[in-house]
Automatic annotation (TrEMBL):
<dbReference type="GO" id="GO:0005829">
    <property type="term" value="C:cytosol"/>
</dbReference>
<dbReference type="InterPro" id="IPR044992">
    <property type="entry name" value="ChyE-like"/>
</dbReference>
<dbReference type="InterPro" id="IPR029062">
    <property type="entry name" value="Class_I_gatase-like"/>
</dbReference>
<protein>
    <recommendedName>
        <fullName>Glutamine amidotransferase domain-containing protein</fullName>
    </recommendedName>
</protein>
């Protein structure tokens, strides 16, 4: 799909300290910050560095899409528009201006991937099956 659009994507493993250089930020049309097993509100150096990068990108009006962890790690601007919310999660989706969006869920997950993840969680006893429903 991306090849057809002639898009190129660079990947930075920020949890390992890999970040784009400041003088290269303007070369990008935008950034996608995906999920992570780490705590978005933690004090790990790379999380703090990522928050600082997000602030730079915001000041440059470079597009940011945050998914799950990427949604959580963004400090919600006071003028952000809440697009979706729920009792369980609170803010499910927000946008700020025309350049920042956060989505708590995983729109990239297919049904097969989701069922595979649920099966793994059941096998590791992270969730238990009772009758036909799942208990989390």
């Amino acid at each position: 799909m991306l090849e057809e659009e002639k898009e190129t994507w660079d990947m930075y493993k920020v949890s390992r300290g890999e970040f784009p250089k400041d003088d290269e930020l303007s070369l990008y049309d935008g950034f996608v910050i995906t999920g992570s097993c780490s705590d978005a509100y933690g004090n790990d150096k790379w999380v703090i560095d990522l928050v600082n990068l997000i602030k730079k990108l915001d000041s440059m009006h470079i597009k940011i899409l945050g998914i799950c962890f990427g949604h959580q790690v963004q400090e919600l601007p006071t003028k952000a528009e809440i697009i979706a919310k729920s009792e369980k999660t609170g803010i499910e989706m927000f946008k700020y201006g025309d350049h920042i969006m956060g989505i708590q869920g995983h729109p990239e997950y297919s049904k097969d991937l989701l069922l595979h993840l649920i099966d793994r969680l059941i096998q590791r006893n992270f969730i238990m099956v009772q009758g036909r429903g799942l208990l989390c």
